[in-house]
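It is worth pausing here to work through a concrete case rather than discussing structure prediction in the abstract. The textbook approach is simple: state the sequence, then state the predicted structure, then interpret. We follow exactly that order.
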Amino acid sequence: MGFFDKLKAGLEKTRKNFTEKIEQLITGYAKIDDEFLDELEAVLLSADVGIKTTAMLIKDIRQAIKNREIETPEQLKPVLRERLCAVLSEGWTGMRLAPEPPTVILVVGVNGVGKTTTIGKLGNYYRQLGLKVLLAAGDTFRAAAIDQLEIWGQRIGAEVIKHSEGSDPAAVAFDAVQAAKARKAEIVIIDTAGRLHTKSNLMEELKKIRRVIAREIPDAPHETLLVLDATTGQNAISQAKLFGEATGVTGVVLTKLDGTAKGGVVVAIKSELGLPVKWVGVGEGVNDLRPFNAQDFAAALFTDK
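Step two, the predicted structure:
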């Protein structure tokens, strides 16, 4: 199964909660009136598109009706697909790579969202492009996270820089950057803690890691990716706000998109927080993490079965 087919299959629950309800709306109404738009608003909110995004889309649709772009309920779907695609594509830059290697990618997020697994899959993606990848076990507060990253390193053929459990995560980041420069690694991916077992503040710890990296490579980290679990819906938005303010998040990795009816959160993250979703995960396989593509997402969401 190709990745688009996996994306389409992964969005099945969201499609049932979103596109199919829109289909029911379209067949249930002869014309677009206020009652129809109220129902549409409820559908958008139930898919976790978000309050701000929903209000914007309803406003756009009202304008499209005024402009006679939409005259019947049947004409709604292509316009809605186009608007969602436009929201997701706005300001899209893709992954930022360093002009000279190594490219440093800092990965942040709460525990349980699939952060370490995401790093392994991300490393695998770059390894398949023929790049030398180095992983850094910066979640030093969980021995299991260090062990898990080591397993991923062996699996994908990437060296892992680690210290003992409880050591300074910023020191791990420092060593990783130094090792990458010495060993001519092209990609460095640094894991971080999702919470701390000490009194120190997690956000302060993440800021310290960023400072240490930037001292060694002035433009680094080149990407700070926030891993979010799509099944948490709007809770993912509050996590994104928290991490975004403290760590300079440049993009989002959305995991477990295949397990949720709340796939509309992709739109909410982009529209409400201005953060692009750069990667999506749609399964357990090593190749089931891929760069996000707005056109593919919209096509998979609105596709016929």
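Step three, interpretation. Strands lie at 103-108, 133-136, 159-161, 187-190, 223-229, 251-255, 277-281, 289-291. The longest helix spans residues 51-66.
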